[in-house]
Amino acid sequence: MTPSEQANGGAWVRTLGRSLMWVSPLVSYFFLWAPIAVLIVFSFNDSGSVSEWRGFTVRWYQNIINNTFASGTGTTRFQTELLLNSVYNSLFVASTATVVSSIIGTTLALALARGRFPGKRILDAILYLPVVIPDITQGISLAVFFRILFEFVDTVTGQRVTSGFATIIIGHVAFNISFVTIVVRARLATMDARLEEAAGDLGANSLQAFWFVTLPILLPGIAAGGLLAFTLSLDDFVVTFFTAGVGTTTLPMFVYGMLKQRVPPEINAISTIMIVVSMVLVGVSLLLQGRLAEGE
Amino acid sequence: MTSPQIPSPSAGKTTPKSPVRGFSLALPGIFWMLVFFLLPLIFVLVASFMSRGRGGVPEWPLTTANFERTFGVFLPVVLRSLRIAFLSTLFCLLLGYPLAFFISTRTKTRNRQLALFFILLPFWTNLLVRTYAIQTILGREGLINTMLLSVGIIQEPLTMLNTSGAVLLGLVYTYLPFMVLPVYAAVERLDTRYVEAAFDLGANDWQAFWRVIVPLTMPGVVAGCTLVFIPAIGSFVTPDLLGGTRGLMIGNLIQRQFSGNGNIPLGSAVSVVLMVVVLLGAFINVRFGEERSS
């Protein structure tokens, strides 16, 4: 309720405030959704650009399915393979990084919430750095780091090591650990530590107490943290860009390449598919979270 | 963003066995963070004080020349980045503050969730796709130009893409949800009895707004502003795809020094400057933002 129920102050101020309270949010919603709507609508446009509407078509979607891209003058027959390959690479990188960072992040959260060791406060502060440090800085620092590391390995062992999936995943885990730890620790903070003590009193050893008491309670937190890590990893372009090698093109890198070179008309269709897939994923995860929250 | 909660000091400390506990659990995380996050940052810090060798690789001796160049020839770009980031934050606030109020004044829980959901949904779409969407609207043959030309308002297509204005629009578009969420959280916590009390004590609308509502929602505003400013100042994709040379920002400057025959020490120095700006922003948030008040 607006606080303006009492009759004082200028009436015009109130009218202005009231109308602004309606107009401004509507403008914002329009602003947020118009570009997405334009993209989706014009993915069905026969002319392949937004400058003219030449009728409805599903041609661009068919091209993706039929493995033909109408980019430039001739048609090329390998683009869809590249696209699918990049999707596969993205899923591989994101799922590996999610598993690794979920395990490391959860143990770190447990250590921070339940443990006692020197340097805990510093560790706590460092944990927030990947959240605020720009991805471009993380990307170039990893590029410098791996460059020096590979040179070192080369001079010591004589073996040539290059960037690839391993370097990308290492980079993704490095920023994901923080997010998982923060989410899991928030969950741990709401958990009653006496439950573990009760398990101990009833004869469980610490491993049993963890497995049968702590872990089930933590699971929604770990799931939420893992989901966040998966999304961040799947969406990441900048860190991947600086840690990738040959043949490790992820989906965001593929899209970036298309935008940077000649933009094929199929890009609207690809974008629409990406929008729909991410929205379905968000919807499902929200439903799942709601289910988990209800199950408490 | 998730606001972390510090566990109560008594948690887990009721059965002290040894002064050091749980360190081995923390070891994998400590290792990863130290080796793959902190150490690379330290390398960048060191490289920023080194000279440029063959192929742009860092080389001894130590020098401050990279920082002199950052604040010399690159100063216009640094200042432009600061200006664009400040303006993005300002516009996000102007759009986001009423939006947060709009959402929290929906009386039905379901409507409130939906209103929030439709703010967040675009945010979960890939950044590149969202930026491309802006491109299709602002481009020379984009939607706005096509519409204005066909109506006859303009005779020549307007240049909207590859300007700093396009970058500003892209950043506001991208980071608006970051403003709405913390402000919404603050508005939700706002005790309306304070506002009623202000009216009872003779305040008019304007006074009630400026002297009660604004101060009470300030932690959310500070948190939102830093959450927008920090990624905006460090952005790379948005200025890269929307800015061209006229909308170049710090992130693009850094990337250029690291691609091909670049200058790694110089790029590192620019990165260090960016990091300092970002950490200052984060400090302001920790000091005055949302988390303190909750």
Helical amount of chain B = 55-70%
Structural class of chain B: mainly alpha
The proportion of residues forming helix of chain A, as a percent range, comes to: over 70%
Spatial extent as radius of gyration of chain B: 24 Å
> Roughly what fraction of the amino acids of chain A lie in strands?
under 5%
The biggest beta sheet of chain A is recorded as:
none
Characterize the structure shown.
The complex is a heterodimer of chains A (296) and B (294). Chain A has helices at residues 11-42, 59-65, 79-114, 120-132, 135-157, 165-189, 194-201, 206-235, 238-243, 251-260, 267-294. By secondary structure, chain A is mostly helical. Chain A starts with 10 loop residues before the first helix and ends with a helix. By secondary structure, chain B is mostly helical. Chain B has 13 helices and 2 strands. In chain B, strand 1 (50-52) and strand 2 (58-62) form a beta hairpin. The interface between A and B is large, with 104 and 106 residues.
Question: What characteristics describe this protein?
Answer:
heterodimer; A: 296 residues; mainly alpha; 11 helices; disordered N terminus; B: 294 residues; 13 helices; globular
What is the topological layout?
The complex is a heterodimer of chains A (296) and B (294).
Chain A (H helix, E strand, L loop, with lengths): L10 H32 L16 H7 L13 H36 L5 H13 L2 H23 L7 H25 L4 H8 L4 H30 L2 H6 L7 H10 L6 H28 L2
Helix pairs in contact in A: 1-11, 3-6, 3-8, 3-10, 4-6, 6-8, 7-8
Chain B lengths: L22 H25 L2 E3 L5 E5 L2 H6 L4 H30 L4 H15 L3 H12 L4 H9 L12 H26 L2 H9 L4 H29 L3 H6 L7 H9 L5 H25 L1 H4 L1
Antiparallel strand pairs in B: 1-2
Helix pairs in contact in B: 1-12, 3-7, 3-9, 4-7, 5-7, 7-9, 8-9, 9-12, 11-12
